[in-house]
Amino acid sequence: MQTSVTQPDPAQNEFQRQMNGLLYSLLKWAQLSEFWTKVDKGAGWYLYAVGETVPIAPATPAQVEKFIVEMDALLRQDHRESYCGIVYADCLDKPSFIKIYDPNHLGVSCGSSKNAILPGWIMSLAPPTELHLKYALPANRQRWWQGLFSQK
């Protein structure tokens, strides 16, 4: 009897594999605080706000640091729960892929919905491919993202 082994889809790039791969949740706020210190700011992170233009170059270490500080503040302000649970990474000690869900657009959190909710933001060492939202990106999120790295 012959069995078949599922081979990785060659059309799927590294970003897509990570996007659909196993990720670990940062359930507690204290875990998130510790996790941010483990992110190598100079590793060549692509910072992608889903629904915005896909970045073509990695962010600078200063941009990554600013993103982390501002993202942490936004999550703590908008996700007023005793737990975090909306940040996921491929590795909690040396991450190379991080999904961050928008607290204002979580959908069904247990994953039982037929319509998967896309994260609001992705940090990836692999160049991202465009993800398509099924809704219009809220204007307040667009302004937040566009103002994050603007020169003031």
Termini gap: 67 Å
User: For the residues shown, what is the average pLDDT?
Assistant: 83
Which bin fits the share of residues in helices?
25-40%
Number of E-state strands: 5
Tally of contiguous helical segments: 4
Structural class: alpha+beta
Characterize the overall form: globular
Order of helices and strands: HEHEHEEEH
Key traits:
single chain; 152 residues; alpha+beta; five-stranded antiparallel sheet; globular; disordered N terminus
Report on this structure.
With 152 residues, the chain is α+β, with helices and mostly antiparallel strands. The protein has one domain (17-146). The chain contains four helices and five strands; from the N terminus they run αβαβαβββα. The protein has helices at 14-19, 29-38, 61-78, 139-148, and strands at residues 24-25, 46-49, 87-89, 97-100, 121-124. It has a five-stranded antiparallel beta sheet with strand order 1-3-4-5-2. A hairpin with a 7-residue loop joins β3 (87-89) and β4 (97-100). The longest helix has 18 residues, at 61-78. It is globular and about 35 Å long. Residues 1-8 have low confidence and may be disordered.
